[in-house]
Each structure stands twice: as structure tokens, then as C-alpha cells.
Amino acid sequence: MNDKREIRYPEGMKWTRQRKNVYEVLQEATEPLSAVQIYRLVEELAEGEEYALSTVYRILAAFEERGLVSKDTWMGDGTVVYELNRGGHTHYAVCLECHKRIALPSCPFAHIRLGRETGDFTVTGHKLELYGYCRECKAEKERTEP
Amino acid sequence: MNDKREIRYPEGMKWTRQRKNVYEVLQEATEPLSAVQIYRLVEELAEGEEYALSTVYRILAAFEERGLVSKDTWMGDGTVVYELNRGGHTHYAVCLECHKRIALPSCPFAHIRLGRETGDFTVTGHKLELYGYCRECKAEKERTEP
DNA sequence: ATCAGTGCAAACGATTTGCACCTCG
DNA sequence: CGAGGTGCAAATCGTTTGCACTGAT
């Protein structure tokens, strides 16, 4: 948490105040964030400093290009989110009622062979989202609609 | 194909010229289409007739509300597409090179139990996209980069 | 000193909305 | 006839871009 060791940032990239702040926000995030969310958090972190939203977009694009962050689109509503590339990937279960996103503890595809399904297609990655109802909302629904 | 029997449209919905046209375009589509694509195809179909793009959006929203069509966001690039609800669902393999979308012949989840993974979450649906390279692009890549 | 990075404001594409008119049922 | 549907133009949202200035290397 208070791990303040130097960040190993990509060669040839200026490590500006703005980039440091965006990086720090991403580092502390526990889930993927939209550009605007990141912008707000950066403003909070760097109180008083001037900031442009477009700069955040450009920083995120630059980070993505260097493989520092990955950009993602949530299938449910098309929200675009960014997160630090920590290796590995996460899938989510999305509640259709309260829109909470619950990270799956593991990837179901660890246990499945995809070869036959895809014919001549060479699979290098995948995205998966589950939809349904979380425990709270299911209980609520059962109470209101018998 | 030349199946012109009456459409069974939802009660309480006015079946206007515009809605008929949008419906017909969706019916003839072999893959999900964006609102703008639908708009263009409707213009083509109903040559000469006046049309507003906003009407297409409103029609699609109305259709979705009645469960006639389903709206979807492609994970790769966030494109929003619509297709007729024909029951069942399709997954796609997306080529990272040429961006072709290849429909999978079956759903990999037919063979997998999701229960344990999701704890207290009740799964009612899911979305999946595979990423990789189609045969043509793979061959091309192997030729250019040894 | 140089050139990548930045702030600002304007441009953009996709989608939505307010309003007066039109049309299906 | 009347509610619901439509066309049009303007508004909105998230994101991108042109330009002159600034600051990291």
C-alpha cells in the first residue's frame, strides 16, 4: 500500500507529473475505471493542480501503446474502462438488477478446450461476461414477485 | 426467403411503414447491424421515402423494449449493434488482423458447469468473444515474420 | 535546446430529446 | 378522433484534435 519504490516506466517516455498521477490512481484502483473516473481521482489526488481531461485520454492512449494499461469495453453497456496490466485477466458476473460487477475467482476456460469449436481460427485471447442476479437482488425479487 | 406471411407484432404497437421497413431489414440481415447501417439499408429498401435517423433509434429502442430485437455491444471496439431475437445466441471469434467476425458453430458453455465458479450469483446469460487470427491472416503473418 | 507532453477550446460521431405535425387503429 | 409515432433541428455525451505554450531530458 505505502509501496513507494520507483516505478519502472518504459524507455523514451517522459515521466511527467500528470503521468505519475494517472499511474498512481491506476495502481491504487481495485477495479477497471473509465477515463472520467480516472480524471476525477487524479484531480482529488493532485488537489489544486490544473488538469485537462484530454490529457488523461492521451496519457491512457500512450500507456496502452506501451502495454502499461489495457483498455476494455464492458459488454453490458459499452462503458470503456482502463486498468493496469498486471498480467492475467479477470471475468465479471454482472447483476442485471443493481449492476454490481463481481469478479470471478477464476477463468472458466482454464478447464475447456476451444480447439474444435473454432476450426482454423487461432485463439489468443477471449472475453467473457456473465449476467444474472446477485444474492441480494435475487432475494429481493423472490420477495416481491412470488 | 420469400416468406411474406404476416408478422406477429406485439400488441399495442402501431405497425407503421417505418417500423415495417426496419423490421424487414433486420429480418434479412445475416449478422448484427449498427443503427446507422440499418438506417442506410432502410433508405435503400424504401427508396424515395423520407426518413430520420432518430426514428430508427426510437424504433430500435421500442423493439428492444418489447423483446423483438436485442442490442449488443461488441467488446473489441464498442460498436453497438442490433439483431432480431431469434432465440438462442451466437458467439464470435474476432480476427485481430482483419477484424473479420466468425460465428462459432456452438456455445462452448454447453459443455461447462458454471455453478461453482460464481458462488451466490445466479447466472441467466453470458457473453463471450474470442480473439486471435483467422487462417488467412495467420498464414500472412507467418510469411512476413519468420 | 529540443521535442514530447500539456491545456484549452473547438470538432467530432453516436445517440437522445423537444416540439409541432402526421397517421394508424 | 386521439394517442402514439415521426421528422427535424438542436442538445448531449464521451472522445479526439489543432494549436500555441511548457517542461523533462
Overview of this protein structure:
- Two copies of one chain form a homodimer.
- Chain A is α+β, with helices and mostly antiparallel strands and 146 residues long.
- Chain A folds into two domains: 1-85, Arc Repressor Mutant, subunit A (Orthogonal Bundle), CATH 1.10.10.10; 88-146, Ferric-uptake regulator, C-terminal dimerisarion domain (Dna Ligase, domain 1, 2-Layer Sandwich).
- Chain A has helices at residues 17-28, 35-45, 53-65, 115-118, 135-144; strands spanning 69-73, 80-84, 92-95, 101-103, 122-133.
- The longest helix of chain A has 13 residues, at 53-65.
- The N and C termini of chain A lie far apart (47 Å).
- Mean pLDDT of chain A is 85; it is low at 1-5.
- Chain A binds chain B through residues 72-78, 80, 93, 95-96, 102, 104-106, 108-109, 111-112, 114, 117-118, 120-135, 138, and chain B through 72-78, 80, 93, 95-96, 102, 104-106, 108-109, 111-112, 114, 117-135, 138.
- Chain A binds a DNA duplex (25 and 25 nucleotides) through residues 12-19, 34-36, 50-55, 57-59, 61-62, 80.
